[in-house]
Amino acid sequence: MLAANAAQQGANGLGNDFSVRQMLATKEAYLLFTIFFAACMSGLYLIGIVKDMGVQLAGMDLATAANTVSAVAIFNTAGRIILGTLSDKVGRMRVISFTMLVTVLAIVALSFMTLNHTLFFICVGAVAFCFGGNITVFPAIVGDFFGLKNHSKNYGIIYQGFGLGALAGSFVAKYFGGFHATFMVIGVLSAASLLITLFIKAPKAVEMESEETAQAAELAKA
C-alpha cells in the first residue's frame, strides 16, 4: 500500500522530501519549532540554574544542591535512551505529548507547591528526563514530516529553537522577576505545545523540486 502510494505520488510529481523553502511554507514547520523551543527553554533553563534553585526554593545546603546537578545529568541521559527507544514503539509524537505533559506538571509543582528535597529532585529530574528525550526524538520527527533528502537543512532551521530557547529563559528571568516568572512562561508554552502535539500531522506531499529549481529559488531570494 505504501509502495503504491509512493509510486502514485511519483507519477504525479509529488513527494515527501521538502526543500527548506517548501518546509517554511507549511504551518507544521512553525508548530514544530514552537514545541522544540518550549522543550529547550524548559530543559536548558532548569539545568543551568538547578543548583541555585535547590538552595533558594528547596532550602538545600550547597553540597546537596551540587548533587542535584549530577542527578539532572543522569536523568537527562536516561531520557535520551529510554524515550528514544520508546518512540520507535509507540510513535514519536506520542512521546513528545508525554514529555510536554510531564513538564507542565513539574513546572506547576515547582511554582505552587511547598518543596522539600525529594519533591524538588523529582521535579527537576522529570524535566531533565523529558528534555533528553525531546532532543533525541526531534530529529526523527523532522525527518518524518519533511523527508530525508534535505533533512540536515530542515532540521538546522528547527534546531534554532535550541539556542533561542536557552536565551529566552535567561531573558525572562533577568527582566521579569526570576524563577517564578520564568516558570510561568515555560508552563504556558509547554501547555500550548502539549495541545499542538495532539492534533499536528505531517504535511501533505509537495511537488518535487529539482536541484536546479531549488538553487534558482535561493538565488532569487538573495
From TrEMBL:
Top-rank taxon: Bacteria
Keyword Transmembrane helix: yes
Any matching Pfam family: MFS_1
Listed transmembrane segments: 29-50, 62-83, 95-113, 119-142, 154-173, 179-200
Positions of the Major facilitator superfamily (MFS) profile domain: 22-222
InterPro entries with a match to the protein in the record: MFS, MFS_dom, MFS_trans_sf, Proton-linked_MCT
PROSITE patterns referenced in this protein's UniProt entry, alphabetically: MFS
Record bears the keyword Metal-binding: no
Keywords associated with the record: Membrane, Transmembrane, Transmembrane helix
GO molecular function: transmembrane transporter activity
Protein name: Inner membrane protein yhjX
Upper classification of the organism: Bacteria, Pseudomonadati, Pseudomonadota, Gammaproteobacteria, Enterobacterales
